[in-house]
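This section describes the prediction task in plain terms. A model, or a person checking by hand, is given the sequence of a single protein chain and must write out its three-dimensional structure as a string of tokens. No templates, partner chains or ligands are provided. The sample shown here is typical of the held-out split.
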Amino acid sequence: MTCAGIRFSAIKLLGLATVMSVLIPSCTSKHTDGRTTQWADDSNIAKPDSIAVSMADIGKFPYLAPPEGYLYDRYAKNRNFAEKYHFYKDSSIVTIGGKYFRALIRKNDDRKYHKEPFSDSLIVSHYENAIRQLGGIEVYSDDKPLKILDSIDNDMANQPIAGSYRQFIIRTPTGNAWFHLEYDYDSIQQVVYSVIFEGAINEQVFFMPADIMRIAIDRNDKVVLYINFDKNQATLAPDGDAQVREIAKLMQMDTGLRLFMEVHTDSLSTPDRDKRLSKERIGTVIKRLENLNIKKYRLDGTGFGSERLLVLSDYDENRSKNRRVELIRTSINETGLREALNKDGKAILHIRFETGKATLKPEELEIVEEIAKLLNNDESLNLSIEGHTDDVGSSEANNLLSLERARTIRNELLGMGISSKRLSVAGYGSMRPVVMNNSAGNRAKNRRVEIVKIKR
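The expected answer:
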């Protein structure tokens, strides 16, 4: 990627005083087919809620005009709280509804503008810098369109043309303004500008494809999904099953990915019943993924019931937001283990044993095989295998159990040909918790095995 400076003429905003000409940085990104896209700084992809409310006067809707030499096509759509559109927000995709404007941007017919060719890079940089000067941030940048399921705007919601997609938000005292740019197409030169002022149609969370999940996982190490089950049951609804199939696709795309899944409910029932239902649902999801040929050792999870509400479950929309499944990345393949050891000097593994015993569950043996691969590929590496428990039971029993579990891992590695000189064991019981032992979920985090890099 190369960067240079580009000077733009005055940016004329609708209903806003002219912003003076400024020198701004611009970056050039090379596509695999040789095309080049140029835009302003694309390194700061942020979460909408992390930005302060802008006190700038953003003018009258639709806020921004095209750069000099360009104009909105006469077929532009401008509707008052009648549309909805997909945006990337934190770790999930949401549908934002509100006052809506969408237009193709074309060259001005005036002859004085005919000398310069159509430039999508100039147009996109123009909008980005106007938005940033008004206190906005970028929330999405990729070649994967988010507007893939909606057919409300039928004449513009057909199969998207291959291109680039960027989204921004300006938070104002009266509401959020969301901006969407589509450009850099393979077959035609055009830029589509869309803006929604949020309101009227409430935010709705929906189906997320595997490739978009991967973007969220890569960016945040987690993704939030809304998987539908039958009401008050652990049975997947048809669209819920479709979402689980997308999780399987994600894990097939990245064979080194292991997921810890957290299931959450609303608070319509008792806390105990909510937690029991969420645990039954995580069991359903894991079993379905196994049926889709995802190995069990790559899957783990727990149910929190209504312990961790995102919002008050005071009406239907909020209750639907609380009924969610969070996928959290946990790297356990050889590459992930090496990266953890290089970064932190240790890797934390939630290897499962029989309850109260040092007997390794059969499906967990594949994790031990990944440790063996790591040791075989780096003969200078020596490891301390350290067991940890929660605080249930006496200290003496926990210390012994954690040591025996560490020995079990070592013995399996010895059976795989790893020299005993390269391995040591220790058991710390409940003496070194990573979180407080104040809930079932936290106790599960404390029950772990750590492999620690040591020098001989």
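For orientation: The longest strand covers residues 92-107.
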